[in-house]
Amino acid sequence: MSTLTFRTATAADIPALVSLVTSAYRGEVSKQGWTTEADLLDGQRIDPDGLLRDIERPHSRVLIAERDGQMLACAHVAVEDGAGYFGMFSVRPDLQGGGVGKAVIAEAERVVREDWQQPAIRMSVIDVRDELIAFYERRGYARTGIKKPFPYGDERFGIPQARRSSLRSAGEGAVSENWTFVCALGEMLPGEMRTVFDEVTGTPILVMNYDGDFYALEDRCSHEDFELSSGNYDGDEATIECILHGAKFDIRDGRALCAPAYSPVPKFPVKQEHGGLWTRDDRG
After folding, report:
1. Class of the 5-147 domain?
2. Hey, which bits of 54-147 come out as E strands?
3. Of 60, 79, 139, 196, which one has the greatest count of Cβ atoms within 10 A?
4. Domain residues of the chain, as ranges?
5. CB 141, CB 89: distance < 8 Å
6. How many helices (H) and strands (E) does the chain have?
7. Do 5-147 and 168-279 fold alike per CATH?
8. What is the Cα–Cα distance from 66 to 56, expressed in whole angstroms?
9. 284 residues of the chain, pLDDT tens digit each
């Protein structure tokens, strides 16, 4: 078998790159491999215009892995916010698990470390992709604890499928389609929290267990558009503090408790039904 080689993509590679990335994450073909998102997202996985910008901008490189002139895998590396960034990692579905992906990651890490001399490399992964997160953790990556809302409504990132059918394992039954599944009862212990997205509006909702009672707030600070889930949840005081500027809120009613926030965070209902925990954006 001939050696795997790497080169930097050009604009002429965009159609082939879009085809490769789509085959690794969307549709029935992607289910041949383990990176598939076909049960989570429809629509496109990559935006050709955005891909062109990544190819052309400074300190950004789209890597292509080839063997005998055939494109087998790709990844995007860049310098962002004082560190390397790794994304768009795609391997042809029928070749996944054969070592190609590990070679691509190694090359991306080399570029960030040797060519750009960056101290670390970061990436973003959909938080329900447990097997993918575990793959990166086995390679030495660690979770930062930072969470970003999924860009609902921006079809460049895909169209989320209804999560209800795949998440109803906590218990079947007639549940209002406006309610969003959070987790099975017993999965969220006192002092813990979890973010979900309303199935209808896409609103990020932060659900917290306070001494056995559940409360839900919009996962967005009223002072600055930043996710509260990245901050400190005090399970003794029933407060959550925004990590950005220190605004603090009462989780039970969303009241702002200190500057720089003066407006409350929207509060949402939570119910326990059919063995699961559910919430929704009830603002109509």
Report:
1. alpha beta
2. 60-67, 70-80, 83-91, 121-122
3. 196
4. 5-147, 168-279
5. no
6. 5, 17
7. no
8. 21
9. 689 999 999 999 999 999 999 999 988 878 888 788 877 777 778 889 999 999 999 999 999 999 999 999 999 999 998 999 999 999 999 999 889 999 999 999 999 999 999 999 999 888 778 888 888 888 899 988 777 767 666 666 777 764 433 333 333 333 335 788 888 888 889 999 999 888 778 889 999 999 999 999 999 999 988 899 989 999 899 999 999 899 999 999 999 999 999 999 999 999 998 778 899 998 86
Note the pTM of the prediction, 2 decimals.
0.58
Token representation of residue 157: 């990132």
Task: Identify whether 190 is preceded by a cis peptide bond (ω within 30 of 0).
Answer: no
Q: What is the CATH number of domain 168-279?
A: 2.102.10.10
- Provide the CA 150 distance to its chain's centre, in angstroms: 6
Closest CA to 219 of 204, 234, 232: 204
> Which amino acid is present at 142?
A
189: tokens are 């212990």
**10 pairs with which residues across the strands?**
none
Long-range contacts of 223-229 (CB under 8 A, 24+ apart): 223/247, 223/256, 223/260, 223/261, 223/262, 223/263, 227/147, 227/148, 227/149, 227/195, 228/265, 229/147, 229/193, 229/195, 229/204
Element (H, E) at 160: strand 159-160
> Cα–Cα distance between 117 and 236 in angstroms, integer?
43
Do the strands 121-122 and 83-91 form a parallel or antiparallel pair, or are they unpaired? Answer: parallel
Query: Which amino acid does the sequence have at 48?
Result: P
From first CA to last CA, the distance across the chain in angstroms is: 60
Task: Tell me the DSSP string of 207-227.
Answer: EEEETTEEEEEESS-SSSS--
On whether the CB atoms of residues 77 and 89 are closer than 8 A, the answer is no
